[in-house]
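Job type: complex structure
Entries:
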Amino acid sequence: MTRIEVTVNGVRRDAEVEPRQLLVYFLRETVGLTGTNVGCDTSSCGACTVLLDGESVKSCTLLAVQSDGREVTTIEGMASDGEFHPLQEAFHRNHGLQCGYCTPGMIMAAASFLHENPTPTEEQVREALEGNLCRCTGYQNIVKSILDAAGQMSGVKA
Amino acid sequence: MDVLLPRTLEEALEMKAAKPEALPIAGGTDVMVELNFDLHRPEALIDICRLPELREWKRENGMIFLGAGVTYGRIMRELSELTPLTQASRTVGSPQIRNRGTVGGNLGTGSPAGDALPVLAAYDAEIELASANRARSVRWNEFHVGVKKTALEPDELILGARWRAVRGPGSFSKIGTRNAMVISVAGLCLVMDDDARAVRVALGSVGPTVLRASEAETFVAEELTRSGNWDDPGADLPVDAMGAFAERVAAAARPIDDVRGTAAYRRHACAVLARRALGWALAARREGVGRP
């Protein structure tokens, strides 16, 4: 077992982890945050996307020990003071989900992207989602949601 | 399985000397998929993400050093003036993978489909290696000696790549089965070196290692000389030169049929990429791009 110290959604966690444990299972099973889904185990689908020091990464191909000393943000860390994050609001408003399995990953990928590019074009949003698959093929409303959120967050009406 | 977590290069090299079987891991793009699918059970991993020495890039004396731990995301943000390298980085996986994946990973895995590798070959890069008691550098084509086979000794780590900065246009392009998250079926990097009056062309995914199209390089450099294009970028090449160049590039490929494409398709793709890349470079020269 290896001792790690990782900040998850602003809360510091000290834990003993198996060196082989994936970050996503640390989050789901040790920390108890099951919002992050596992889809493919190969970095292909993006369902497990979380932020590591603010940048989107796929937590199914990252070892928990590699997050030692770093900051992880999951979908559970997006809302604050009982209020949805603008991305969550926008997905709700624009029907940006069907089965919902890809949604946490889509929102985390979008959060990382909007931090880099707060006022994207539709094409840029589609490019930014190249690492996230929606098995319902509901991309139209996902893109719409992210553009809506970008508008809300940057103060420009979408 | 142990995961070694060194904090400095010195510590990492000592650990590697004591445990040469430890497999280096950074972004884990290749290593973790093998572990998750149980294709490979290394006794130990050595996480090289936190070694500051590997996470830097620098320019010194006309040379560029790119640390093995620099991610593709950082290359796109910090080294955008290196057009072919940035273009290759942009085609690696997805943003999440580019935030983790490193040039050292492409080098260490040694797949001929590694997107950064044709760029390093076209730059004529030296790969810098170190163990606890020695440092050495190996030219790119002596580092990759076969499909996923490298000249790395068990006690060594890859520090990065170093090459002479080139003045002149260049590009990286690749063909794949879709537009996102794709492992290339054929990739090509073309670099024009205005000072040496040379053109360098490297091919990925069409041989056991990345290959250079030397005959095509010599041919097009001579055509540029004959037409006066080196001195006058407005000068046109003979009409049949583009096709003849593309044919020579395709002839340098040594492709096989595999799950991603047939040898014949790959050879054809090389010719198409070659013609496009030369066209872009000539257009950039006409417009003065890549000149001081």
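Summary: The domain at 2-46+54-164 of chain B is CATH 3.30.465.10 (Uridine Diphospho-n-acetylenolpyruvylglucosamine Reductase; domain 3). The two ends of chain B are 52 Å apart (CA to CA).
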